[in-house]
Amino acid sequence: MSWTLNMEVGVCDCNEQGQKCNPENGKCFCTTKGIIGDHCERCDTANHYLGDPMHHGSCFYDLTIDYQFTFNLSKREDQYYTQINFRNVPPKHDVDADFTIHCSVPSKMNITIKTATSPEKAIVTGQNCTSTLFKTRFLKSEHKFGVEDNITLTTFFVYVYDFKAPLWISISFSQYPKLNLQQFFITFSSCFLLLLLVAAILWKIKQKYDLYRRRQRLFVEMEQMASRPFASIVVEVERRNLSPSGGTAPLTTSVPPPPLPPKKRKKGSGCGGAGDSPSPIALEPCTGNRAAVLSLLIRLPTGGNPYTPSGQSAGLALASALVSLGNNSTRKVSLVDPSGKGQDGGKHGKLSRKSSQHPDQCV
């Protein structure tokens, strides 16, 4: 075999990609990361190394744009590596390409560029790669980036060499667009105005919904008021006649009116409670017993005539009011003795307490 013959003369058949080999089987120890095979004749495509190591070629790790890669060469099989290669194709034609790299141990670095119309040429040679970050920018005005008609316009190659394992290398190519302040403010203003418009629409919808709920509650209250129970009452209405002074007076007849059932009125009862003050014909408490609907019969004026004008039925009207319910105790008011004398016969009248005609529940 060829490796046996080469071993006899002290030379390993490693395709110029290695200087040492295993004396037992002739397997070469490749010096470039990503080149594999017994004679360093192919690339490690399973780990994204592409290229052709034959005929003085090499293998390159394909770097993805806008990602930072870290390569750790600290394994036992990495002790023979002295070189590692990378390549990148910037895809965005209108954005500059930024390149960064730093190495944990002193190394050398070359950067070359290849275009669709020109062969590979060096742009950075013999650059020291250390723990200090090395950064450079490739301008879009000087290079044509992207792919046209399936043809790659620009490819960058990075060669890191003259190092001794173990070490790690951090490398990246990125194309981040610059911040356009005008476009940023336009976008921000548009989003802000859109948010205000959405908030205004939601507020209008909420107002419509609240109005709908108020109307529904009003309808429910009206239905409850309309469905409240009815009761019959006896009302005594006096007949009126013209008095000599032009007013109205009770009409006297020779035939006495039929007797009415005796009415027992408790002092202070109802809304009047005393004398001839009006009393409610109905007091219907609402839910919660904080308010009630109070109903009264009101006699309409006749305008000096014995009968009500035409169109008015019996001259009576039913009035209702929503009142609040307070405590049931009757309020007291202070009155001055109209005779100017107190109960003890003094000159100054003494204030006397008298029950009010309007208790707290009639507000």
From TrEMBL:
This is Attractin. One of its GO terms (biological process) is animal organ development. Residues 60-175 form the Attractin GBD domain. Residues 242-254 have a biased composition (Polar residues). The lineage of its organism: Eukaryota, Metazoa, Ecdysozoa, Arthropoda, Hexapoda. It holds the Pfam family GBD_ATRN. InterPro entries: GBD_ATRN, LE_dom, LZTR1/Attractin. One of its GO terms (cellular component) is Golgi apparatus. The keyword Transmembrane helix applies. Keywords: Kelch repeat, Membrane, Repeat, Transmembrane, Transmembrane helix. Residues 242-282, 328-363 are annotated as: Disordered.
